[in-house]
Amino acid sequence: xxxxxxxxxxxxxxxxxxxxxxxxxxxxxxxxxxxxxxxxxxxxxxxxxxxxxxxxxxxxxxxxxxxxxxxxxxxxxxxxxxxxxxxxxxxxxxxxxxxxxxxxxxxxxxxxxxxxxxxxxxxxxxxxxxxxxxxxxxxxxxxxxxxxxxxxxxxxxxxxxxxxxxxxxxxxxxxxxxxxxxxxxxxxxxxxxxxxxxxxxxxxxxxxxxxxxxxxxxxxxxxxxxxxxxxxxxxxxxxxxxxxxxxxxxxxxxxxxxxxxxxxxxxxxxxxxxxxxxxxxxxxxxxxxxxxxxxxxxxxxxxxxxxxxxxxxxxxxxxxxxxxxxxxxxxxxx
Amino acid sequence: xxxxxxxxxxxxxxxxxxxxxxxxxxxxxxxxxxxxxxxxxxxxxxxxxxxxxxxxxxxxxxxxxxxxxxxxxxxxxxxxxxxxxxxxxxxxxxxxxxxxxxxxxxxxxxxxxxxxxxxxxxxxxxxxxxxxxxxxxxxxxxxxxxxxxxxxxxxxxxxxxxxxxxxxxxxxxxxxxxxxxxxxxxxxxxxxxxxxxxxxxxxxxxxxxxxxxxxxxxxxxxxxxxxxxxxxxxxxxxxxxxxxxxxxxxxxxxxxxxxxxxxxxxxxxxxxxxxxxxxxxxxxxxxxxxxxxxxxxxxxxxxxxxxxxxxxxxxxxxxxxxxxxxxxxxxxxxxxxxxx
Lengths: 334, 340
What we know:
The structure holds 2 protein chains of 2 kinds.
Chain A: H1 30-40, H2 46-67, H3 82-89, E1 91-102, E2 105-117, H4 124-132, E3 140-143, H5 145-150, E4 153-154, H6 160-180, E5 185-189, H7 200-211, E6 217-222, E7 241-245, H8 254-259, E8 265-269, H9 281-292, E9 300-303, H10 313-333
Helix pairs in contact in A: 1-2, 6-7, 9-10
Chain B: E1 2-5, H1 21-30, H2 36-57, H3 74-79, E2 81-90, E3 97-108, H4 115-125, E4 132-135, H5 137-142, H6 152-172, E5 177-181, H7 192-203, E6 210-214, E7 234-237, H8 239-243, H9 248-258, E8 264-270, H10 280-294, E9 305-309, H11 318-338
Parallel strand pairs in B: 1-9, 4-5, 5-6, 6-7, 7-8, 8-9
Antiparallel strand pairs in B: 2-3
Helix pairs in contact in B: 1-2, 2-4, 6-7, 9-10, 10-11
C-alpha cells in the first residue's frame, strides 16, 4: 500500500462555513461484493481482493471530491460491520453466526472470549492510503468502546464497565496511531450511547479513555436512540463535535437543543439513510436552516443522518449531490 | 405438568444457505425480481424451520418465531388503522431497531392480521400447541409517537379495544393460549394501573383461550406487590434478572405470596440475550429448583407452570439459539422429575 502522507496533513480552511462531510461508510459496489464472495470460494487471492478494495477506495475519494465534500472519508470498502471489523482485528474476540440488525439486515456479532488488547494498528494503513489520494482532509473513523461493549456478547469479563474500559484503552491506542500517521479528524462512533441512559456516565468515562491526550479534532456519531433521556448530559462526552441524525426523527432533536443550548459543534444529518427516496434540495435546505436556529454557522457541519452503506451507489450519490447543493444555497445567504 | 416454551421470536436466518431463503426473498422482492407470493413462501419455509427447531428440542408449547414480523412494534401497528409507520428507533437496549408508529387517527382494526399466520403455525406444529403472540397495547402506546396528544392512558385503551377484536379472532381460529407481550412494564412500573384497565378491555369476551401476560427487558416482579394489577391467567417474568446474583428462592417465595393459587407463571430462566451457554444443571440448581420449591407446583395445585427463555432468541445466532432450546428442555426434564 502506498504511503503518501509526508507533507503536513491537510486541515479545513478555518473560514469555511457549514463544512460538508459524511459519517463514514459508503455503499459497496457490486464488483466488490462479488470479489468478496469469490474470495470465500477460493477463486481469488486476498491480495486480489485488497487490490479491488484499494481501487474502490480511490473511486470513493474521487466521488467525494467531485461532489464537493470538504472532509472526506475512506468509504470503508475494506470493512464489513462496524463492530465486527474491529473485533476481528483486536485480541480477545471471536465472531458469531448471523444475527438481525433490523429489517433484512444481518451481521456477525462479536463474542468476547478473553482479555481485549490492541496488538497492532487496525486502520492506519487504510488511513494513510486514503489521505495520500487527496489534498482534502480525511476523517479517521473508529467504533467507540461503549458501543463495542454493548454490541458484543460477553463470555469473559462479566462486567460491562470492565469490558468498556478495556476496549477504551485498545481504541485509544488505535487513535494515537492514527494521529501519529497524520489524522487530524478522528470520529469515534457511539450509536449505543443513547440506548441506556443509566450508563451515560460509563460511556463518558470510556470516551475519555479514548480521547484523552489525542491531538486531533474529535467527533462522535450517535443515532436512533432516546436523546431526551441523556441530554444535556450527552454534551459531557469529551469530544469536539457530535454528528447526529436529524432527518430520521423529522428534526425532533432540535426542540431539545432549544431547551438547553447545544454547546459543541453539531454535524447535522440532513437526509435519511434508510429510505430509497431522494430528498429534494429545498427539503435539505429547510433542515439546514432549522439547525442554524439552534447552533451558529461557526459550529455547524452538514452530513447525512448515518453511514451510507445501506443505500445503492446511485441513491447515495444523488442524496449527497442534493446535500451539497442545499448547503451551497444556504452558504450564499450567510 | 411443567411445560417448556420459547419466549417469543426466533432467528430468521442461519449460517447455512438453506437458512437464508428469507433474506434472499426480501432482497429479490425489493429489486422487483420475485412476486410477493415467493416472499410468502420463504416466510412459510423459515417459520417451519423455527417450529422444527423447537419441536426437535422437545418444547411443549410452540411459537411461530415471529418470522414474518418486521419488528415487534410496527408489525402490529401496521395491522391496525390509525397508525403511520415512521423512522427507525432502537428497541430497548438491543442493537436492533423498530420503525416507530405515529398514532395519527382513530385506532381500529378493520381485518385480522395475525390470524392467518397463527393458522399456518398451528398446522405446521401439530400436534404440539402453538401460542399466539400479540404485542400489548401499553407497549404499542409507549413506543409510538402521539402527535394528537391523546395521552398514554387514552391511547393505550384505544389500542386495547382495537386489539380485542384480533384476540377474539385468534381464539376463534383455535388459539388456546394467547401471549400479550408487554416489555415496557418492567421499565415503567407506574403504568401498571393503565395496563390493568387495558388488559380488561383486551381480553373481554374470551371464553376458552388462556392469556399469558409476558414481560421482558427487566425485572417486573416488584409489580407483584399488587397482584390485582396483573390480570391474566399466567404471568411471564424474567426471574433470572429478578434473582440477580442473589437467592432465587426468595423470588419463588415472593411469587408464592403474591399470586393467587390458580395464576400460572412462565419463568424466564434461560438467558436469551447472551451467547454464553449455561448448563442445564447450572440453570436448574441456581434458578428453577429454588423457585419451584417455593411455589405450589402441578400435582399439588392447578397453577400452570412454564419454563421459558428470558426473551425471544432473535438476538442470538441460530446455532446458539438452538443450543439454548436444548438447555431449556433439559431443565424442564429435571424439573418434571423432581416436581411431577
